[in-house]
Amino acid sequence: MAYAVAAQRSRPLLVALILLHLAVISHQVDGGQGVSLLQGLSLRVLSPLQRGVRATISGGAELWRGYGRLRGTYEENRRLSAEVERLERLLLERSRQSGETEHFRELLGLRRLLPLETVVAEVLSRDGVPFYRGLTIDKGAADGVGLDSPVISPTGIVGRVIAVGPRAARVQVLLDRDCGVGVLVERSRANGVVSGQATAERGTTDLVMNYVPEQADVAVGDVVITSGFDRIYPKGLVVGRVRSVGKGSGLFKDVRVEPSARFDRLEEVLVVRPSTAGVEMPEAVR
Question: Looking at residue 131, which CATH number applies to its domain?
Answer without folding.
Answer: 2.40.10.340
